């Protein structure tokens, strides 16, 4: 055979197959093997039985092979068979082997002729075999019979491709001689995955059943319909022989006699027949293994390296070791604290690129959502003016006042300050929700210990709920402090003299002109009649809102000045997944083309809130729903005398100035209060007290009880690790300094039709 020293290679691959089959073949290694493909009743099973010299495969009509059978042939003095699923049991009676294959097939596929890609592993030890590993695959069929699924043809085809697509798989394409070879299903599917013909070996069966006067001489000589690796002809037992229990050894003798006596084949009898096929396959598989061994070794090594780190902690694992449990508990709690701090404070490693979370989300609540909620409450022009008017009149009582009363200013300011309580408490609630979400994300690493995760989440959530009360009390205290003394001597307060001169128009504080406040994509919602919805690149400055075709900002579509603009909420459309808000002109003018308002849509509510906060910075405020107030408003509110109007305007300016100061203070102090009493307190609690609470919450053993999934994962990983190490050791023992048979030159195989 020319490859002495390589005789251990096929048993080596058998060992590797066993090692990986025992761990569920999750190693994704393409081990070298030979797959037997062909149509139904092409004689695939007979070829395999001839190799073994025994009847051991199920027979019958229709699909008999319904699961892949990995058949490992091992040259051995004693003759017996073993199944991987029946470890330790030796089958000496080959009728029992057939029964076991049928029973194991039915166990997975049921008895309805369905198929399954889960292989059956059978190893046959015999003095009559050469070392070979073959996979017997279901025969290709066109029509479903009985209660088979209608797509049985595609199911079988997909299963075959699953095996033969791998570069490490040799393809034994079996075709009966009494059919048209040019339309062979086996050769068609082989060419599909092996267009160069490097892996395909042709086998012609049923040569004895050809019509009288015809032969396959030209095919077997590789002259007609050539294949790169050529063809080998075999003669199997007929159905009559099988039914009559004709001995396979006698059948092999008859096969030899057929080739020697047939005038068309006698000159090539030495290259025909089952024994030659077995030798050729042994030789080719051995060469194939030798060629793929270096790649296999490097793949095994890379898989071993990727497992090393994870396996390190499991190597000396003893489930009931109390010191291990204590150490694991300390490490888990410490890691939980580190992860929480990283998520809140931010960190370069393990950055979430999909969405904002933890500290970044809390930052958005503090600096976008909270200021927006504050402004939404304060800026309600008509209602404020009406309240000022009532306050002035009520302070004067029956008298007509000559001067603007400061008591009216104080009453209005206090009423506005009280309104700040709601958004401040809402800010606390939003931060708490985000904190609890962050705790849950951090506790994902405790999944190995479900009870520990549950207890940790309960303890930290209880702590946050306790701090919630203190934080809300402190936030309300801030508001009460502001209510307790109205400081009209504040350096930023405009005072009465300036308030009288100041007009409402000047009151709008704008950012630096032309300063870009925000850029981003928004969808401009317009009716289909006027062009339909479209995405544009929007640029918001302190003076205008412009939109462009794209972010290069070369092709400007429109520029909208911000004067007299306000924002209002818009309900999400029935079919729309986007969140929408609208911009309109308070003086009832068209905003864009002939539209009184334009609707802008974002992917999420967070984006909407963020854009609204940006518009606030540019001086575009939200509209307040005034329908109820207007209906209830008495007529005299709108017919003020000029003196009262001046007084209302003065107090309006004073209130605006003072509330601006309060807003600034609250915007600064509330996040600081939440940070101190809630977030920093939670960090300190996790670092210094969580462990003590866990110890006092119950038995450490039950707390550190592993989940079944984790135990299974550990066992699988260790099995995989040892299987890889064993495989590398086995490969290391093999010398690859051997003779290789060169691959035959290419042939013209364009006669095999393409698969459509």
How would you describe the overall organization of this protein?
Helix content is 48%, strand content 13%. The chain has 756 residues and is an alpha/beta fold. The strands form two sheets. It has an eight-stranded mixed sheet with strand order 3-4-2-5-1-6-7-8, sandwiched between helices. The protein has an eight-stranded mixed sheet with strand order 12-11-10-9-15-14-13-16. A hairpin with a 2-residue loop joins β10 and β11. α11 (359-378) runs antiparallel to α20, α13 (406-418) packs parallel to α20 (642-688) and α15 (450-484) crosses α21 (690-697). The longest helix has 47 residues, at 642-688.
Question: What is the molecular shape?
Answer: elongated
Indicate the percent of residues in helices: 40-55%
Spatial arrangement of strands, main beta sheet: 3-4-2-5-1-6-7-8
Coarse structural class: alpha/beta
Largest sheet: 8 strands, mixed
Membrane topology: Peripheral membrane protein
EC number: 3.6.5.5
Pfam families: Dynamin_M (PF01031), Dynamin_N (PF00350), GED (PF02212), PH (PF00169)
Subcellular location: Cell projection, Phagocytic cup; Cell projection, Podosome; Cell projection, Uropodium; Cytoplasm, Cytoskeleton, Microtubule organizing center, Centrosome, Centriole
Question: Briefly, what is this?
Answer:
This protein is an alpha/beta fold and 756 residues long. 48% of the residues lie in helices and 13% in strands.
């Amino acid at each position: 055979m020319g490859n002495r020293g390589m005789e251990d290679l096929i048993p080596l691959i058998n060992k590797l197959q066993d090692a990986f089959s025992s761990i569920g073949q999750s190693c994704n290694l393409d081990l070298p093997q030979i797959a037997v493909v062909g149509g139904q009743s092409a004689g695939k099973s007979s070829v395999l039985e001839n190799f073994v010299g025994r009847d051991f495969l199920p027979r019958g009509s229709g699909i008999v092979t319904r699961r892949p059978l990995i058949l490992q042939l091992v040259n051995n003095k004693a003759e017996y068979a073993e199944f991987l699923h029946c470890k330790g049991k030796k089958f000496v009676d080959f009728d029992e082997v057939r029964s076991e294959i049928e029973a194991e097939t039915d166990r997975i596929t049921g008895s309805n002729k369905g198929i399954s890609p889960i292989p059956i592993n059978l190893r046959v030890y015999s003095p009559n075999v050469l070392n070979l590993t073959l996979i017997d695959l279901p025969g290709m069929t066109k029509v479903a019979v009985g209660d088979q699924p209608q797509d049985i043809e595609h199911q079988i085809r997909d299963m075959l491709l699953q095996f033969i697509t791998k570069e490490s798989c040799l393809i034994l394409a079996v075709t009966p001689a009494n059919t048209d070879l040019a339309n062979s299903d086996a050769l068609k599917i082989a060419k599909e995955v092996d267009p160069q013909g490097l892996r395909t070996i042709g086998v012609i069966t049923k040569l004895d059943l050809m019509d009288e006067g015809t032969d396959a001489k030209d095919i077997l000589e590789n002259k007609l319909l050539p294949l790169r690796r050529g063809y080998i002809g075999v003669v199997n037992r007929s159905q009559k022989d099988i039914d009559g229990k004709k001995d396979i050894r006698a059948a092999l003798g008859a096969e030899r006699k057929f080739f020697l006596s047939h005038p068309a084949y006698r000159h090539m009898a030495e290259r025909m027949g089952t024994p030659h096929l077995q030798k050729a396959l042994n030789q080719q598989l051995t060469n194939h293994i030798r060629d793929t061994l270096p790649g296999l070794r490097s793949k095994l090594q890379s898989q071993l390296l990727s497992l090393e780190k994870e396996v390190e902690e499991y190597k000396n694992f003893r489930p009931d070791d109390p010191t291990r449990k204590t150490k694991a508990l300390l490490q888990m709690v410490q890691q939980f604290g580190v992860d929480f701090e990283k998520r809140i404070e931010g960190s370069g490693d393990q950055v979430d690129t999909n969405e904002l979370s933890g500290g970044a989300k809390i930052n958005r609540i503090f600096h976008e959502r909270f200021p927006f909620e504050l402004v939404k409450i304060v800026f309600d022009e008509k209602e404020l003016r009406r309240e000022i008017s009532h306050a002035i009149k009520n302070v004067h009582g029956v008298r007509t006042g000559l001067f603007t009363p400061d008591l009216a200013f104080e009453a209005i300011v206090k009423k506005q300050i009280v309104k700040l309580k709601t958004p401040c408490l809402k800010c606390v609630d939003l931060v708490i929700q985000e904190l609890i979400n962050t705790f849950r994300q951090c506790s994902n690493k405790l999944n190995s210990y479900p009870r520990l995760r549950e207890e940790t989440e309960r303890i930290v959530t209880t702590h946050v709920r306790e701090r919630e009360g203190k934080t809300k009390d402190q936030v309300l205290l801030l508001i009460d402090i502001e209510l307790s003394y109205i400081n009209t001597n504040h350096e930023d307060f405009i005072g009465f003299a300036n308030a009288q001169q100041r007009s409402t128009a000047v009151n709008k504080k704008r950012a630096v002109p032309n300063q870009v406040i925000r850029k981003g994509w928004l969808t401009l919602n317009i009716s289909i009649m006027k062009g339909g919805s479209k995405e544009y690149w929007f640029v918001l400055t302190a003076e205008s809102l412009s939109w462009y075709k794209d972010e290069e900002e070369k092709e400007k579509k429109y520029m909208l000045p911000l004067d007299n603009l306000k924002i209002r909420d818009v309900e999400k459309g029935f079919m729309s997944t986007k969140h929408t808000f609208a911009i309109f002109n308070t003086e009832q003018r068209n905003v864009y083309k002939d539209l009184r308002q334009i609707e802008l849509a974002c992917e999420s509510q967070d984006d909407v809130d963020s854009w609204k906060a940006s518009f606030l910075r540019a001086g575009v405020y939200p509209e307040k729903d005034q329908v109820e107030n207007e209906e209830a408003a008495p007529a005299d509110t709108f017919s003020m005398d000029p003196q009262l109007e001046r007084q209302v305007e003065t107090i309006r300016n004073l209130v605006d100035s003072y509330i601006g100061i309060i807003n600034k203070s609250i915007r600064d102090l509330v996040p600081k209060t939440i940070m101190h009493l809630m977030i920093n307190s939670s960090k300190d609690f996790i670092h210094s007290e969580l462990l003590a609470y866990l110890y006092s919450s119950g038995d450490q053993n039950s707390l550190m009880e592993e989940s079944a999934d984790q135990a299974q994962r550990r066992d699988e990983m260790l099995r995989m690790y040892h299987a890889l190490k064993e495989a590398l050791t086995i490969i290391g023992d093999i010398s690859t300094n051997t003779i290789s048979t060169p691959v035959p030159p290419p042939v013209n195989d364009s006669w095999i039709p393409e698969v459509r």
